[in-house]
Amino acid sequence: MADNSIEKSSEIYHPSAEVVANANVPEYEQLYQYSCENREQFWAEQADHLRWYKKWDKVLDDSNKPFYKWFTGANFNIVHNAIDRHLEDATRNKLAIIWESEAGAVRSFSYHALNREVSKFANTLKSMGVKKGEVVTIYMPQVPELVFAMLACAKIGAVHSVVYGGFSYEALAARIEDAHSRVLITADGGFRRGKPIDLKSIANEAMKRSPTIEVCITVRNNGLDVEMESERDFWYHDLQSLPVASNKCETEVLDSEDPLFILYTSGTTGKPKGMLHTHAGYAVYTSTTHRCLFDVKPEDRWWCAADPGWITGHSYLVYSPLINGATIVMYEGAPNYPYPNRLWQMVEKYGVNLFYTSPTAIRGLMRFGERWPQRHDLSSLRILGSVGEPINPEAWKWYYEVIGDSKCPIIDTWWQTETGGVMIAPLPITPLKPGSCTKPFFGNEVAVVDDEGNEVPAGEEGKLVIKNPWPGMARTIYGDDERYASLYWGDYGDKEYYKAGDSAKVDEDGYVWVIGRMDEVLKVSGYRLGTAEIESALVSHQAVSEAAAIGLPHEVKGNAIHTYAILRDGLVGDKALEQELKEHVAKELGKIAQPEDVQFVESLPKTRSGKIMRRVLRARALGQDEGDLSTLEE
Ligand code: 6R9
């Protein structure tokens, strides 16, 4: 949100000679210009890094704007690139995944083993009647089987919809309903801070509300006793031992534009949007950005410490590193468990070279001081990445100096669920300004505009837009083309700009400074939540008649949720009710959406058309000027 303090820093950090010598892309300006002037040619060249069953007729089909298509006429499957082609060379015996549980258990899988696991899972899904194009919902902790399940869906042309394991049954049920899923894949549960987390009972609650579900496959992970319903529920390990789950499964030859996944994200209304991504363009875009921005080399160990349930996990934990044949490090657990050195201990233990996390995680660990990372040899690190929200210069510098020993570039990547992959970020060779995500990635022309779509002068705040299509872009909102077109496109007449929903500035050097969301979307600990979802959760409690949610700056979380509630007639708010409401929201939406507080109020500031003016609530809470109140009711 707009209150995030990004002070313009005059400091510039230049890459070392070693970083420059190692760079996968040695030069930016010329290639950038070339990529924008010859966009289709540029993307065709990048697409040549991948394996196609049949090449495209057309790189970009823009005949039905804003429903752009990429690499039309081609046959492709992302799994053919993420696994199959690696089986033909030495990558076959290289580790694809090293997974560590919170308790310290380690499981690792070579590309050969990954292929076996994914093939078995794919055959299991087939035996359950899963068909090409069908949406399979996945609700799991961060275990290797989650990755297998995603890849298994993709392998047979089914569409996965991963619902973050921290979401509640209501949120899960709403997503199952929107996707009309027939099959749900879940696990008995996971672990967090040494305590088992029960997922299956949440899945059971969700399934009570989800008449479309016919089959639920449960992976055994934490050993909790769970309730299984006969004819509907199957243990994965039982199915896996059946002859149908053979370890040979042909990868389905798909069309480039066949759907790969839906990922639900928060927007301005209470109904989450299922952003739809497709096989080929997404594969080309994510693998190109991953290779260029992080200087990934075949021998590298890559750790994206995000949950696969979010877009960062989809694009940079699962798909792009596998396409690029890297070794992925995965961790299921809290970053400071049992001690705040957990991540750094793992960096040392596995010799991680490239590390990608969020500002909120950095700020959270920074609180514990330098002595925790300093206990470890972090010299394997070459590049550090940041994603999810603006990184404040203080956290940037700590990350740079303490974790990266002042030698690793910080790749601050701006992007969204909708964009599929990173849109604005430095290359390792780019001079850095702490707090700026620097320059657009190849092929992207970004601008900061006013309400008419005219570019604002350097240094002034405006709306961030992208002026061109790119291969990784979402194709639509699942089942709602109209909403997609009106929400993201078509505000500026002839100018076909993609509206990001963020406000930003561009400085005199062309560096982009993202300020935050302009709409009613909050980034809380890097998680994207809608104020409308939080409000409707509050209102679903019988005591509440109206509610408002706002974000206020928080030292670690970036933003924290604060709420206001008007109670039903005759009710009086007290501490106990406040606690009950906070827990109610957590139950409805998930722990991450639990508000810091609930203030009981008599009225809420509204426009004459009845919209809650959250801007006014925010200004009051911060003791700031309330700004233009001309549209305020009464
Ligand atoms: C990848 C992801 C998207 C929103 C986006 C913006 C914020 C993400 C950022 C950033 C400043 C960065 N955001 N990265 N803001 N600097 N490097 O986070 O996707 O969950 O869809 O959120 O996150 O506000 O609009 P998603």
UniProtKB/TrEMBL annotation:
Domain Acetyl-coenzyme A synthetase N-terminal: from-to ranges: 28-82
GO molecular function, one term: acetate-CoA ligase activity
Domain of life (superkingdom): Bacteria
InterPro entries per the UniProt record, alphabetical: Ac_CoA_lig, ACAS_N, AMP-bd_C, AMP-bd_C_sf, AMP-binding_CS, AMP-dep_synth/lig_dom, ANL_N_sf
One CC-aspect GO term: cytosol
Domain AMP-binding enzyme C-terminal stretches: 533-611
EC number(s) reported in the record: 6.2.1.1
One GO term (biological process): acetyl-CoA biosynthetic process from acetate
Keyword check for ATP-binding: yes
Keywords: Acetylation, ATP-binding, Ligase, Nucleotide-binding
UniProt domain AMP-dependent synthetase/ligase: residue ranges: 91-475
Family: Belongs to the ATP-dependent AMP-binding enzyme family.
PANTHER family assigned to the protein according to its UniProt record, in alphabetical order: ACETYL-COENZYME A SYNTHETASE, ACETYL-COENZYME A SYNTHETASE 1
Protein name: Acetate--CoA ligase
